[in-house]
Design goal:
It contains two helices and no strands. The chain has helices at residues 2-5, 9-37. It is rod-shaped, with a radius of gyration of 16 Å.
């Protein structure tokens, strides 16, 4: 897939890491909001 898109695997991995970090931050924020609302 990376070869077909002509993208280096390293940049794809880095984007995935950024995406995962954002997701975990969103999950943490949602948990904090839940505690705040209760």
């Amino acid at each position: 897939l990376c070869g077909a898109l002509n993208v280096s695997k390293r940049s794809v991995d880095r984007d995935l890491d950024v995406y995962r970090n954002l997701l975990s931050k969103l999950v943490q924020a949602k948990e904090l909001l839940k505690e705040y609302v209760e």
